[in-house]
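Full entry
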Amino acid sequence: MHLDFKQHILPVAIVAAGFALVITLSLALEKARPALPADYADSDLALQGKKLKGYALGAEGLIADWYWILSLQYLGGKIMDSKDGSIQIDNLDALNPRLLYPYLENATELDPHLSAAYSFGAIVLPAIDTRKAIELTEKGIRNNPENWRLFQYLGYIHWKQKDYASAAAVYERGSTIPGAPPFMKQMVAAMNARGGSRETARAIYGQILASAEDEQSKRSAQVRLYELQAQDEIEAVNGVLSEMRSSGGPCAKNLSQVFPKLRSIRLPSGSDFRIDRNNDLIDPSDIPYLFDPTKCEIKIDQNRSTIPISRD
């Protein structure tokens, strides 16, 4: 038992303690560091944890989790520190999150089966660097060829790029994996027939919400579904307002005038229009829509709503 401790437990403990010491010292130096230019924070990673692969004596998973957590904190911090209140969900260039991929690369090099890192990268990286997003997800597939969700994410990235042929091919490959849901086969037909439709987008994000293994991907998918629902509602309401004007009448003075006509409209998502206690028509994030009687249309209140309508 004493020999086993020296041969196995002690080396792992030493490596873990040494890595913890490096982290502690790094944090201490960070606190003591004088003020530096804002872009200095994005200098290349000082500690390349992936170089410890094969030398960490079983502690690779622990270090990988650390890098995975750092990636979440890094992007979250970028968003919190941003002075731009209208961050574009499809383009995060304004945040300059250049270290996000290195963090995820370190995490997945140390733990090639860390599926949460792959899924997070597939959802977020397309808004930063599509090539890196594809590279990371294909790496996940090579290391986890039995994981159909990674094929789903790769298909999603190609779909976001409007490369429906590539998306269909990836969904087809993923559909042959044991345990893959019928959704994968359905997406092959959808990509070939109506890849750019809102219906297809709703199916993709709905499946991500239902099957994602990490909360970040689930939240992102839910925001996207809210966005699609808001687009349906805005089109429906503006259609009613347009009909009122085309019939020769004036635009409604307030939205309550169109409520009776909205009751007969069936939204594609199957949801209903919602009205709050102040008799305001509200978006999926519970914020009232802005009504412009001059243009005779409604829109998202981007100063208050959490729904970031995409600008294609």
